[in-house]
Amino acid sequence: xxxxxxxxxxxxxxxxxxxxxxxxxxxxxxxxxxxxxxxxxxxxxxxxxxxxxxxxxxxxxxxxxxxxxxxxxxxxxxxxxxxxxxxxxxxxxxxxxxxxxxxxxxxxxxxxxxxxxxxxxxxxxxxxxxxxxxxxxxxxxxxxxxxxxxxxxxxxxxxxxxxxxxxxxxxxxxxxxxxxxxxxxxxxxxxxxxxxxxxxxxxxxxxxxxxxxxxxxxxxxxxxxxxxxxxxxxxxxxxxxxxxxxxxxxxxxxxxxxxxx
Length: 261
Ligand code: SF4
Ligand code: SF4
Hints:
mainly alpha; two-stranded antiparallel ribbon; globular; binds iron/sulfur cluster
């Protein structure tokens, strides 16, 4: 499995806390990455200067959603076009100095950590997510939520009567339809639990598993329960279950139609 963090078309900063600030819509996240990249651009490549800059940046940002998940102020844009998110303290970016000790972890953790998706996703699934998302925002929301990826691919496969494969994504209409389905992750109510997969913040800040309480809203379960759970389609998280279920069904059908053409 090739690392998931920097792929051919997409990049991820989830474990550096990309989505863990109050105010985690795409625009707010991009603004935050802009501000960090600008703030660090003129800073001397020394430990002291980066430590001070990291403290200034952190103090200027809103609080985390999950207090137990750290948010690193050294995560920013790697490229002039500001399309690729990554570590601005990495020696490949600073031009030599390894300044990752001045982030919220230390160099050895940053260097060695690989999230569980690396062992759970197959290379083909990873390729499908990379090719379909092809960005620095939706990709990280999706690639870190293996149950969501599996539930979506399994549901599409059920409709077309076979497994969706990487080769299907060579066709732009299939990519667009599947991306629209995955983009449910970006369209949830502000603060929705679905942004973080099938978990929610517990009282101590640790993630705890969720389930949709269908009985409480007096309805049967859904054939798309696995997808709905991952996107947080639970009225208690501010989302309209029936509306999201209809969206899931419509986007699944559209993806299946695009594959069948
Ligand atoms: S969450 Fe996983 S894929 Fe994303 S940057 Fe961290 S290790 Fe890489
Ligand atoms: S220093 Fe570590 S935690 Fe911070 S952005 Fe770099 S890799 Fe992520």
